[in-house]
Structure formats: structure tokens, C-alpha cells
Specification:
The complex is a heterodimer. Chain A is α/β, with parallel strands linked by helices. Chain A is 39% helix and 24% strand. Chain B has helices at residues 15-20, 38-49, 92-97, 111-119, 132-136, and strands spanning 6-10, 26-35, 62-64, 102-105, 123-126, 139-146, 155-169. The mean pLDDT of chain B is 95. Classes of the chains: A alpha/beta, B alpha/beta.
Chain lengths: 280, 179
Amino acid sequence: MRKISRDTIVKTVKELYKNATVFLPEDVSEALLKAQKSEKGISKEIIGQIIENQKIAREDLIPLCQDTGIAVIFVEWGVEAVYVDGDIMDAFNEGVRLAVKDAYLRASIVDDPIFERKNTKDNTPCIVHFRPVNGDRVKIIIAPKGAGSENMSALRMLKPAQGLQGVKEFVIETVKNAGGNPCPPIIVGVGVGGNFEISAFLSKKALLRRIGEANKNPLYAQLEKELLDEINSLKIGPMGIGGKTTALAVHIEYAPCHIASLPVAVNIQCHSARHMEAEI
Amino acid sequence: MRKDKLIKIETPLTESIIEQINAGDLILINGYVYTARDAAHKKLLELINSNLPLPFDLRGQVIYYVGPTPPPPGRPIGSAGPTTSSRMDIYTPTLLSLGLKGMIGKGQRSEEVKKAIRKFKALYFLATGGAGALLSRHILEAEEIAFPELGTESIKRLLLKDFPAIVAIDSKGKDIFKH
């Protein structure tokens, strides 16, 4: 059995969170550069500012966006590794807490959603999705998620008879309703199948995929392409002011589901598509 | 930003300046503006409804919908881009009726807000969402003036220098959004 200490988790989470808020993944930067070339007028200016913003964040070491998100953490935990220091969630939260303090990130979490809405002041608790895997390695992926785009996301339980057409219509409707609010150009994560919560989980996981990588199933890859074309023909454009680039990518993840169900979740991601991973 | 088409404006805004500005204009905002988002708006409206004085005089002023990250040492403010304006829509007509002349945010506004912008001759500016690091360089000073208990959502007075924005809704009610 390989032992994993609290200190290792705390340090890894802290460094990942700090860096993820400042350095954008390369595939996202490349997609934005490509989008800039296809725009003109004010839409081009806006993408120019978004690109310039990445440079300034790196130079000044300050967050790309003031919404440094709720810290969403995906963990692939090798079942031959064992955590030896008590409450593991405490270690993840401590990593988040230290990153917020060290890198001057925003405290955006309230303790109770309806009544008090009191800020917890350190951006905890974080959200952790554990998945057991074989072996003794532990992979941690952090994806800070801002509320501007999260608020524009949606889930619907379709009837199986609505099929492909129903799925397409729901995705388009969700993007259309979002308009300029989620900071387009966006990335659209779609989760289909599973059940109510699995579709939502898959739609978020879909956002982690590298831009330019299609679904391995050619039918889903084709659907991703069709949806991307249709979304960009809406001409919502950068920040909703019109233009060719509304979305940089559509990523679909799917899972088997009940004979009576067709769950579809659409998770919208702003252009600040921050995520970073490490293996321990 | 294209230098040839930029219009520099100073806050507080006067009606004569507002009337000359059109939807789609690229603007550089200079002078003081006030930050407020959901929680601060709710508190402002509570004060108004109780006939109590506001922490700042709204007349001619501009509100920036922003909840910045904390300032790192040696800087006035952290990352400071706009938040989604539509969450403030229910509060905005009242503030406009009391003399507020401008708002900086991102995304569309409701029909009620558009009508109030036209009626009270104001402007709605769009700043680039997610460009918080870039916009931070255009903020020279930040001073917390009210509701410190709200943390990032407190009201701060910011001094802007050539802060880049686009006029999204003008005083004639014209807007630049794709419908």
C-alpha cells in the first residue's frame, strides 16, 4: 500500500488552484487566437482583450478573472493508495484555503444558499468528486468554476421519443437563453444519459476535454460538430454583441440510461476555461 | 482597442455628454465610479425604502458591477472584471430614477431597464467579461466606502483611468445585442 499524507494533498491542491486561476490551458488560448482571426469590428476587439488579458495575468500574477470560482476538484484515486492522516476532505479544503490566502483569490462561497447567505471568507468548502481507479496513483484535477456561466446551465429529463432532435433543441435553447451572460465565446459541455445526477456530472466532465478532441464514438463526434455549427450560426458572438464565434467547442459525454429516460444536461463554460491537473 | 474611434469620458456624467454617445461607441472611462453587485444593491434599496441616506449621492454617478479579488501587496485592487448585469435588473430602475447615470457590466438588460435608461437618460456600458487582469490595470485607486461586512461585495469607490468599455445601451434606448 502506498501512503498519501495530508501534506501532499494540501500542497498539491494549493499549487493547482493558484496556478489554474492565472494560467489558461494552451488549447483554450489557441482556440481564442483562431477565433480572433474570424471576427471583425468590436467582436474582434473583445477577443483581442481576452487574449491580452491572459498575458497581463501571467505578467502581474493576478487571476484571469475576478470570479476565481467554486473550486471543483476531480480525483482519480488508485485503490492501492491509502490516506493516512484522518479526514481527507479537511486536506482538500485546507489546500483551497491556503491558495485563496496566498494568491489573493476571491471568497465567493456562502454557507447557506437561502437564509443567511453568509460568506465563509476562505472560499471553502470545495466540491470533490472521487472516482476509484486501479493502481496506487492519485490524479487531482482542479477546475475553478465561475457563476456567470454556471448560472446559464440547465438540465432536462426528455422523453426517449424526443431522441436526437430533442437533445439538439434543448442544447440550442440553453445556449440561446444564455445569450451574452456566460461570457462567450463559451465551451458547451453536454451530458446525455445515465440518470438525473450522472447527466449533470458528465456535462461538467465534458468541459475538461481538450479543445479539438472529438468524442471517440463517431456518432457523437458528428453530433458535436453539428451542434457547434448550429450554435455559431446563432451569431450571439463574443460577449453577446454579434459575431461568428459563440462557442469554441461542444463536448458530449454519454452513459447508458433507463429505458424510460433521456436525461440531458448542458453545462456552460466561459472562455476562461480554467483547469489544471497533477499526479501524486 | 483601435485608437481612432475611442471617446474619452469623465465621471460624473452630464446629460449633454450622455446625449452625444451612441450604442456601439468605444469609450474610455475616467474618474470615480462605485462598485455594487447583488448584496449591495439589496441594501441600497432597503435604505431607499426606509427613507435613509445612501452611502453616496447617486446623481450623475456610474455603478460598476464587480466583485474584485483582494488586492495583492502594492496594488489598489486585484482582478476586477464585470459580473452579469441582469441580476441587478430588478433594482436598477429605482436607482436610475434617483439620478444614477451609468452602469458597467456584462450581458443583456431587461426591457424595464432599457425603458428606464431611455426615460432617465442614462448609459449602459459593457466591459469585457473575464478580462479582470487587464481591467485591473485601469483602476488606480480603490476605497471601501460602505457595507464592509459584505467582503468582495462591499461598495468601493474606484478611480478609473482610460477604462475600456463599449456603449451597449444608449440614452435613446438603442442597444448592440444580437437578438
